[in-house]
Amino acid sequence: MKPAAFDYVAPRTVPEAVDALGNGGRKAQVLAGGQSLLLEMHLERIRPDLVVDINRIPELDDMQIIDNTLQVGALIRHHVFESTQAVPGPLGSLLSLAVVNIAHPPIRSRGTMVGSFGWGHPASEWCAIAMALDADIQLQGPQSARTVAARDYFHGPLKTARRPGELITSVRYPLLSEHTGVGFIEHRRTHFCFAQVAVAAILTVHDGVISEARIGLVNCADRPLRAHAAEQALTGVEIGPPMDGYQLPKHHPFTRSGRIASEQDAAPLAEPYADLEYRRHAIAVVAARTLCQAANDHRSRIGEAKGGCQ
Ligand SMILES: Cc1cc2nc3c(=O)[nH]c(=O)nc-3n(C[C@H](O)[C@H](O)[C@H](O)COP(=O)(O)OP(=O)(O)OC[C@H]3O[C@@H](n4cnc5c(N)ncnc54)[C@H](O)[C@@H]3O)c2cc1C
After folding, report:
1. DSSP strand E in 17-90: where?
2. Where is the FAD-binding PCMH-type domain (predicted)?
């Protein structure tokens, strides 16, 4: 199918883009990587009468670390995070573990991280990580700029706190300390499908004891989620010896936390290839394995810091 006719502008600055977006109450859409928008326009599920292409705005093509925070501008493409060197420390490892699950290389070379926040899909890896890490989203509107915490940003499937006429300029994530271990595991039907379930786990560990757990759930509800109940069940727990995530005992704290994530935090919806029972089981299993991966990651970081393996 061909998209319906639309007008096109390619502003050179953020104020020009915001001006175009707010212009005369038109049904405007931002074109970033185009990997969701163009598909939807071809299927005529979205029919904008104005497309505002932000690809010629140099200030949006910027990623920096400011005050222990990673700020990712609206034109930074998914593929940048494939290198663990792109972002320092455990945050870089987490982003690189997650990014390879997003579609395939051509999509990752054009699609943008910030575009995922414009789209607001419940199966977005970046959005669940933002929930787990208390990231925030920076928006520029016609009158003023504002910052919205990830926990207040997602309102439902493809529904966000972004107001018509606002441009997302960047997303900011806190950097993670070296006491942190990270994990990200995704389960999906075929390699290029969206996740049926994915989990991001971030464990802060001091002297072998978990002082803070953060868990983000991908496609486990109508929006990206943070698994608060499952996190609480891990505070003060010893991470214990290295383990194989595929052989966790039934009563292990990670198995228990995975079950809590599935039963108390998640609110999965049935899908054609996954009924509710299957989805809840998958959430519990993937969450437990991801926690195990994060604990093992912490051990190897400590081992490296001490100059050996643990
Ligand atoms: C086959 C396929 C598989 C995919 N698999 C995955 C997957 O597994 N995980 C995943 O997360 N994504 C997946 N995607 C989507 C892909 O990651 C997109 O790149 C992403 O959702 C949107 O980024 P974009 O830069 O392409 O945005 P665009 O397509 O350009 O825009 C998407 C929407 O966001 C809005 N928008 C974009 N940028 C801004 C901004 N700066 N300010 C305000 N609004 C903005 C646009 O108006 C539009 O409504 C897949 C896509 C395809 C086609």
Report:
1. 28-31, 50-53, 63-66, 69-73
2. 1-178
Q: Which domain holds residue 109?
A: 59-174
Query: Which residue minimizes the CA distance to atom 46 of ligand 1?
Result: 30
**Over the chain, what is the mean pLDDT?**
94
Confidence of residue 306 (pLDDT cuts 50, 70, 90): low
Report residue 177: phi and psi, to 5°: -75, 165
Q: Is residue 238 part of a domain?
A: yes
Asked which of 53-62, 285-294, 295-304 is least confident by mean pLDDT, the reply is: 295-304
Lining residues, ligand 1, CB within 6 Å: 29-37, 39, 74, 101-103, 107, 111-112, 114-116, 118-119, 123-125, 167-168, 192, 194
Same domain, 298 and 194: yes
Show which of 133, 159, 174 is a domain's final residue. Answer: 174
Pair 158, 221 in one domain: no
Q: What is the distance in A from the centroid of ligand 1 to the CA of 55?
A: 14
